[in-house]
Write a structure and sequence with these properties.
Elements: E1 6-7, E2 10-14, H1 22-36, E3 44-49, H2 55-68, E4 72-78, H3 81-90, E5 95-99, E6 108-114, H4 123-135, E7 150-152, H5 156-165, E8 178-182, H6 191-198, E9 202-206, H7 225-234, E10 238-242, E11 249-252, E12 258-259, H8 261-274, E13 282-286, H9 291-299, E14 303-307, H10 311-321, E15 325-327, E16 333-335, H11 344-358, H12 362-365, E17 374-380, H13 390-403, E18 407-413, E19 419-426, H14 429-446
Parallel strand pairs: 3-4, 3-5, 4-7, 8-9, 8-10, 13-14
Antiparallel strand pairs: 1-2, 2-6, 5-6, 10-11, 11-12, 15-16, 17-19, 18-19
Helix pairs in contact: 1-2, 1-4, 5-6, 8-11, 13-14
Length: 447
């Protein structure tokens, strides 16, 4: 049975509609407080946010719920999602909350949770919270003398800056590297340029003037075009584009060419393998990663393990099988030697380390493999599931028969929007375009 509140990455939706309302956020705080208030110690929760105007509404609503449940709240303001995960462990907190809709526009927002170990919650934990939101918050309210307190944490930014810098080996400095960093007017608008500058890079900053509404607006990892132009205009060696909560990374080389998450993972994996740092004998990614990445790793004697879409599923597999590199083509890169979740800045630093150690241009270092032609199209739907339609099923079966082992077909529902995502890849570009178009046409007719 489908869940009412949680999707593939926390709770997300349009502000002041559905379950993204302040009254629901209050109940979410109460429900999560009940689940993570264990034992007799003073319970703590860390709340971060990105730069959306609606964060000023959800932050106090969630804080009120936690305080009413008897938990102390540390509000850290605009901070990257991975910084919240880091602070949960650093402060020995019981729970972390990030208020963000990641790469979505300003009119959306979301709520992500991290457990006391800094990892995102499991499906089972989210299901428990979800049930309590509607059915079990009244008995969470504590007596007045047991109320928690809410505090603004003033040194959170400095803590994360020092944490990020510590992931770079001593003796490695980025003098001589000119870097364009696009912060998407989001959560990393202060910390990312600061970290890069303190490590010696010549920094050209973009997307660092948030106004509450311009987050991800024509900028950041989902819109890297302007960053690519700025790299060419300034003669930079590398471009770094983060998304609204900075857990995602897209790069561009000195020629202004976009480098996606698959190429970034390939570079870091092969670099760590050569230096004896790689664990698990390969990396973990999702069904969306390019077949070219899989072939490259196989040639190196390494493996690519695939999961369903969602970085927390990647992390779950990494933890279970002992991998220390994982991620998604979209730019979520998880380096578990340092982080418990995707961190765009930390991943970018690893690429910069490789550029300095090898003295290679980004266009050389970041071109690890030839990508197999891959087509992805989205079809919006409402009401009943169009994938159940007989003609849609027939079209999918036909496509699988045509590929016949020479490519891949992935069809899935988005976990955050009412979209059917249709992806195909293979060596014959014309064939996969035709197959995707055919499936999408049948889905549109069934909507």
């Amino acid at each position: 049975m489908g869940r009412k509140y949680f999707g593939t990455d926390g709770i997300r939706g349009t502000v002041n509609k559905g379950h993204m309302r302040p009254d629901v956020a209050l109940r979410i705080g109460l429900a999560a407080g009940r689940v993570f208030k264990r034992g007799t110690h003073v319970h703590r929760v860390v709340i971060g946010k990105d730069t959306r105007r609606s964060g000023y509404m959800f932050e106090p609503a969630l804080a009120a719920g936690f305080v009413a449940a008897g938990m102390d709240v540390f509000m850290v303001g605009p901070m990257p999602t991975p910084a919240v995960a880091m602070l949960v462990k650093s402060l020995r907190a019981d729970l972390g909350v990030m208020i963000s809709a990641s790469h979505n526009p300003h009119y959306d927002n979301g709520i992500k949770f991290f457990g006391p170990d800094g990892y995102k919650l499991s499906d089972e934990q989210e299901a428990i919270i979800e049930d309590l939101i509607d059915n079990g918050v009244d008995d969470v309210l504590v007596a007045s003398e047991q109320l928690g307190r809410a505090t603004r944490m003033e040194d959170a930014r400095g803590r994360y800056v020092e944490f990020a810098k510590a992931t770079v080996p001593s003796g490695v400095r980025f003098e001589g590297l000119k870097v364009v960093v696009d912060c998407a007017h989001g959560a990393a608008y202060k910390v990312a340029p600061e970290v890069l500058w303190e490590l010696g890079a010549d920094v050209v900053s973009m997307g660092v003037r948030p106004d509450g509404f311009n987050i991800n607006d024509g900028c950041g990892s989902t819109h890297p075009e302007e960053m690519c132009q700025r790299v060419l205009q300034t003669g930079a060696d590398l471009g770094i584009a983060l998304d609204g909560d900075a857990d995602r990374l897209i790069l561009c080389d000195e020629k202004g060419r976009v480098v996606d998450g698959d190429q970034i993972m390939a570079l870091i994996t092969r670099s760590w393998h050569k230096r004896g740092q790689l664990k698990g004998g390969g990396l973990v990614s999702t069904v969306m990663s390019n077949l070219g990445l899989e072939r490259l790793l196989q040639a190196d004697g390494l493996t690519l393990e695939r999961t369903k879409v969602g970085d927390r599923y990647v992390v779950e597999r990494m933890r279970k099988a002992g991998f220390n590199i994982g991620g998604e083509q979209s730019g979520h890169i998880v380096l578990s030697d340092f982080c418990t979740t995707g961190d765009g800045l930390i991943a970018a630093l690893q690429v910069m380390i490789e550029l300095k150690k090898t003295d290679q241009l980004a266009s050389v270092a970041c071109k690890q493999f030839e990508a197999v032609p891959q087509i992805l199209k989205n079809v919006r739907y409402g009401g009943s599931d169009p994938l159940d339609a007989e003609k849609v099923q027939s079209s999918i079966k036909h496509a699988e028969e045509q590929l016949n082992g020479s490519g891949r077909l992935v069809i899935r529902k988005s976990g955050t929007e009412p979209l059917i995502r249709v992806m195909a890849e293979g060596d014959n570009a014309e064939q996969i375009i035709a197959l995707v178009d055919g499936i999408c046409s049948e889905i549109e007719l069934a909507v």
